[in-house]
Design a protein that fits this description.
Layout lengths: L5 E5 L1 H10 L6 H10 L4 E5 L9 H10 L4 E5 L3 H10 L3 E4 L19 H13 L3 E6 L3 H10 L3 E5 L1 H4 L7 H14 L3 E5 L7 H5 L4 E6 L1 H10 L1 H16 L2
Parallel strand pairs: 1-2, 1-8, 2-3, 3-4, 4-5, 5-6, 6-7, 7-8
Helix pairs in contact: 2-11, 6-8, 10-11
The structure holds pyridoxine-5'-phosphate.
Amino acid sequence: MTARLRLGVNIDHVATIRNARGGDHPCPVRAAHLAAAAGADGITAHLREDRRHMTDADIARLVREIDLPLNLEMAATDEMLAIALRNRPHAACIVPERRAERTTEGGLDAAGQHNTLKPIVSRLGDAGIRVSLFIAPEARQVEAAARLGVPVVELHTGPYAHSDGSVDELGRLRESATRAASLGLEVHAGHGLSFANVGPVAAIPQLAELNIGHFLIGEAVFTGLGAAVAEMRRRMDEARGC
Ligand code: PXP
C-alpha cells in the first residue's frame, strides 16, 4: 500500500463556461466548494495572460473564500509574479504559456531558462509560496528543477494521455518520478488525465498529487461535479491500494 495521493481539481473550465455568456454563472468558487465536499484536496486555477478563463477577481475570491489550498498556475512573468505575491496562494506552479495555444502544450524549459526562472522562484519562495515547475518527464528537466531549488515538480502527463503507444510514456513518467524523488523533490503530475487513463499514473508510488481539470468539468455536465470528483478520487485510491 502506498501513501494516499492528493487530488487537485483544476476549475479553469468552469470559468470558460461562465465567460461564454459574460455573466457570473457558473461560479468557480461554488465549484471549488463542491469539489472540496466531494474529496478534492486542493484547487488549481490558471490565471492566463489573456484571462481567457480565470480572472484576477476569481483568484482573489478563491484565496479568500475556500478552505482548501489554492495552487495558482502562472507564467514566469513580472505581472504574474506581482499577482501571486499580492494574493499569496498556498502554491504556485510555473507553466510555459503561448498565446495561440489551446491549453498548456509543452513543459517548461527549466534547463534552458535557469536565469529567467531563478529570481521568480526565489521571490515566490521567500513569500512562503510553495513553488512547482511544470516540466516534461525528462531527466535533464528534473535535474534543472532541482538546481533551481524548487520543492516540487509537476510532470506533464499530456504525452502519456495522448500516446499512440509508440513511445513508453508511462515508463518516462516512472523514471522521472523516481529521479525527482531521489533528488528530494515532491512529485506531482497532471494534464489530460481521465477515468480511463488515471490508474497507471496514480500507481506510481513517488507521486504525491495529481492535478486534473478538463475531464472532470466535462464529466460534470453528465453526472455533476461532486460525482465526477468522487469517482476520480475512488479510482486514484484503488490504483494506490488504499
Ligand atoms: N497541470 C497543469 C500544470 C496544467 O497546466 C493543467 C491544465 O491547465 C492541468 C494540470 C490540468 O490539465 P487537464 O485540464 O487536461 O486535466
